[in-house]
Each structure stands twice: as structure tokens, then as C-alpha cells.
Amino acid sequence: MGELKLKRDPLPAKEGPSASPMADPYRITVVCLGNICRSPIGEAVLRARLAKAGLADRVLVDSAGTGDWHLGHGADPRSVAVLDAHGYNLDHVARQITPTWLSDIDLLLAMDESNYSNLETMVAHSGLDPELRMMRSFDTDLAHLPEPHPDLDVPDPYYGGADGFIEVLHMIERAADGVVADLPGRLS
Ligand code: 4NP
User: What pTM value is reported for the model?
Assistant: First the structure.
């Protein structure tokens, strides 16, 4: 599978504070199923936390889904609303992760066990070695759990109400704090 050696993202890079030119950035991709609910929230929160920590010029963040149902769509309006209400920015077009991306990713953050399992298979077949973690494993209250683990899931809010999106946001905020705290040791 020679295509696995491709070094470019299949879609244009996003605009935003993390998209400025930088030498050898550390690259994080947040992954859920549809890339319209959870991982866009993860992307927006993590990018904001990185900016606050002064790391926006060293770390690139994007997001993707394992599924293709919503390719090209914007984020779910409920994700947009909860992000707006809490002061986060997001300009989003849904994408599906493919093996060709993996050579450009340092850290994959899965939202749930199913995402983790799908990514684990993709990574194993790629011959590449991005680090694969569940995003909530960086929540300091949950760091003792083995990965993957159901208690590390960010639950899929798609079929529920607005409350589920607020719960997702708060889970992701705690995890994003842990990711940022853990990053300096990973940045060379
Ligand atoms: P996400 O949520 O994985 O957090 O983006 C979902 C979005 C869409 C669907 C499932 C989950 N769907 O079945 O279309």
C-alpha cells in the first residue's frame, strides 16, 4: 500500500490560530464517528487551551470521523450552539480519517472505545506509529484506567438532547486540560 507514504492531508488545511506556518509542528487529530458532534468540540476546545498555554504556534489540531455519512457537512448545530455559548470558535467541515493521514499525525485522540478500536486497526495495518489514546485518559481523575475502557468514553450525543452536548463539552474540557499539561514532554 504505497499510498500510505503520502505526506499530505486530502483536504485543505483549516484557517485558524493553529494553521499558521510553523517548523515541524506536533500534530493532534481528534476522532469520533461522524465528525460533526464530539470531535469538532474536541478540536475547538483543545485549540483554545493550546492558545491559552502559548502552544498555538507549536501544535496543530484538527478532527475527523471514522465514518463518511457527514463528509463535507458543518458541525451539528447543537455542537455549534454549546461552543458559542461557552466562548469557543469553530469553522468546521466534516472529514473522514483514512490511512493516508496517519503519517502526518503524532497523536490520535479517540472519543470512545469504538473509535479507538477502528483507529487501532487502521494504525496496525498502516505500518505507521502515531500514538493512539482515548481523549478522556488525559482527564487526571480517570488517568488510572487502562485504555480502552468504557468509562473513558465521551458518549455519543447525536440522538439525545442539548444536555448531552453540554456534558460532552465539560468532559472534553477536563480532558483537554490534561492533554495540554502532558504536552511539553512530547514537544522536542
Ligand atoms: P459524532 O456523533 O460521532 O460525535 O460526530 C455522531 C454523528 C452522526 C452520527 C452518529 C454519531 N450518525 O449516525 O449519523
Answer: 0.90
CA 118 to CA 130: how far, in whole Å?
14
The binding-site residues of ligand 1, defined as CB within 6 angstroms of any ligand atom, are: 32-38, 65, 69-70, 156, 158
Give me the catalytic one of 27, 38, 78, 95. 38
* Torsion on CA atoms 47, 132, 95, 158, rounded to nearest 10: -80
Q: Which of 35, 97, 156 to mutate to test the pocket of ligand 1 (most atoms within 8 A of CB)?
A: 156
CA of 63 to the centre of ligand 1 (A): 13
pLDDT tens track for 126-182:
999 999 999 999 999 999 999 999 999 999 999 999 999 999 999 999 999 999 999
Domain 30-183, CATH number (from 3.30.70.260, 3.40.50.2300, 2.10.270.10, 3.40.630.30): 3.40.50.2300
Residue with the nearest Cα to atom 6 of ligand 1? 34
Cα gap 67→156, rounded to integer Å: 14
In whole angstroms, how far apart are CA 16 and each of 24, 29, 91, 92, 118? 17, 15, 8, 11, 28
Please indicate whether residue 37 is annotated as part of the active site: no
Show the CA angle centred on residue 50, arms to residues 47 and 51, nearest 5°.
Answer: 85
Expressed in angstroms and rounded, the spacing between residue 23 Cα and the centre of ligand 1 is 34
